[in-house]
Amino acid sequence: MVRRVDPLLVITNSEAGTADEESLDTALAVLREQTSVEVAATSDPGELDSVLHRAGTRRIVVAGGDGSLHAVIKALYRRHDLARSVLALLPLGTGNDFARGTGIPLDVEEAAHVILKGRVAPMDIVVDELGGIVVNNVHVGAGAQASRRGAAWKDRLHTVGVGKVNLGKLGYPIGALLTAWDPPTLRLRVEIDGKVVNDLDSPVLMVAVGNGSSVGGGTELTPEADPADGLMDVMISRATGPLGRFVYAARLGIGAHLESDDVSYLRGRSVSISGESFWCSADGEIYGPERQRTWHVEPAAYSMVLP
Q1: Phi-psi region of 161 (alpha: psi -120 to 50; beta: other; left: phi over 0)
Q2: Is the separation of the CB atoms in 208 and 235 below 8 Å?
Q3: Helices 171-181, 142-157: crossing angle, 10 deg rounding
Q4: Would you call 86 exposed, middle or buried from its count of C-beta atoms within 10 A (0-12, 13-18, 19+)?
Q5: Model pTM?
Q6: Which residues pair with 270 in a beta bridge?
């Protein structure tokens, strides 16, 4: 007996490359064996909103990476449609950190089978005081600076080459190297559920607020974070000296940074950061400079198909 599957609306990036299109075709062949599927390619928020407007009761499949998932969830949240939505994911991105953290297979054919046979689970999101949302992770300090510098270099190098064959992909490694050489040290007050856990007299290298466990394609910045537990995980690194930064980076690379004395790891439902001017990287989106920011968790904000 073939299990009935709800109709699917697959949302993809109209600028996806040939390899992604081939992977998507493979996944669509699996899905279409058991249900009706419409594919909608979007390239900007306006097109995305138009597609979501006609989604109806169909399950929404995001064919893309963490940025694409963030864009769809943000659009649904702003439309006040997120709570009644059921989402699924075909991981076609570079990092795919949300998929890694939730056990969704990185092989798109296997991920398609999860969409057909998986369970529907409630998932949290993180929301700031301005209504901005975080699906996976937001961090300030060294990581955000690396992302900011990398994005600038990516734009510069994108013009060196022809079409998709260019040096743009070198931007983020360059940003990481520049930040490692000259990382920011920030004096920040961090409050969790109204309690001060770091004050201005304790400089920090970075602060991460995790709904999911990893960033950057598998670096487990907040390794114990669970996007369905109703809490945010907060990692504070005070490794501001040259040796401390080196040790922190080495331990972060092997997932052992929580063992360091200059790292704090806590949980809460509300997180506020204030103090010196800082930049934020939220699901890869960079914004700032800021002097104060507050985030809170909204439990069971939407539903996702998981293994």
Answers
A1: left
A2: yes
A3: 140
A4: middle
A5: 0.87
A6: 296
Give the span between the Cα atoms of 239 and 196, in whole angstroms.
Answer: 19
What pLDDT is attached to residue 157?
47
Helix (H, G, I), strand (E, B) or coil at 9: strand
Statement: residue 19 has pLDDT above 70: no
168 HSE (CA, 13 A, CB side): 11
User: CA-CA distance, 52 to 40, in Å (whole number)?
Assistant: 10
- 297 in Cβ contact with 211 (< 8 Å): yes
User: Pairing state of beta strands 59-64 and 86-91?
Assistant: parallel
Instruction: Quick: pLDDT tens for 147-169.
Output: 666 655 455 545 455 444 444 44
Maximal CA-CA distance, the chain: 65
pLDDT classification of 244: cutoffs 50, 70, 90: confident
Distances (CA, A) of 48 to 24, 58, 75, 303: 18, 15, 8, 19
CA dihedral angle for residue 70, residue 73, residue 79, residue 85, rounded to 10 degrees: 170
Interatomic CA distance for residues 145 and 166, integer angstroms? 23
H or E element, residue 50: helix 45-53
Report whether 219 contacts 253 (CB < 8 A).
yes
Q: Is 295 helix (H, G, I), strand (E, B) or coil?
A: strand
Segment 87-101 shows an average pLDDT of 92
- Which residues are bridge partners to 86 per DSSP? 303
Instruction: Give the separation between CA 284 and CA 137, rounded to whole angstroms.
Output: 9
Report residue 16's pLDDT band, with 50, 70 and 90 as the boundaries: low
Mapped to the 3 state alphabet, what secondary structure does 165-223 carry?
Answer: EECHHHHHHHHHHHHHHCCCCECEEEEECCEEEECCCCCECEEEEECCCCECCCECCCC
Q: Mutual orientation of helices 18-31 and 108-117 as an angle, nearest 10°?
A: 30
Q: With 90 as the cut, is the pLDDT of residue 59 above it? A: yes
